[in-house]
Amino acid sequence: MVFVTDHGPAFPRAKSTLYDAGTGIALIIRPPTRRAMAPRVYDELFSGVDLVPTLLDLLRLEVPADVEGVSHAPALLAPDTENAAVRDHVYTAKTYHDSFDPIRAIRTKEYSYIENYAPRPLLDLPWDIQESPAGMAVAPLVKAPRPQRELYDLRADPTETNNLLAGDDSTQGVAAIAADLAVRLHDWRQRTADVIPSDFAGSRIAERYTETYLRIHRKTPTGRSAIAADRGIDEHCS
User: In what residue span(s) does the N-sulphoglucosamine sulphohydrolase C-terminal domain sit (predicted)?
Assistant: First the structure.
């Protein structure tokens, strides 16, 4: 039995972001009873693509060669919970929500490195957040341009509020960490043939997706936030 949640609660800096609150999910696995596994908390990096190979491995089924991800079954079955981590980093990505907002990120246990590929405000608030009390409260505070790169020390700054690459205060050590993570992220994008549309093309795609969603669900946006003009979607209501 597997219990898993969707990404990101509907709050600013959570849903539709690549911060921890936007990418971290709940995951509970009850393995087959014949495996005689004791209950435990697995506090290691786990990517969504790891779920299928892990489940197949726990069921003693062969993992096809073309299945992405790595199995965490050996670590879960090991009696010693201090075994070496299966992963030392995970990748996350966002291209669309109800707007075109291309972002890619790499996360280790120590750092989160994010690249933003289109000029956007600090937060691109989705429709279900922008008119909520939380969305309206932060709207005046998130109009500033979003930086192209972000780096957070997750040990000292677990809520990811202090961008170490902001301003001229970044040290040589910080620059080296960012460079290493940037290379890893670039290599992953090359391996996966990750292509990001132009801002014009991506915005038109997002507009069509959103129009289709509204038509199918017979919904009309009741208003737009003050930052709507910067989101890559044309105004849909007056």
Answer: 15-136
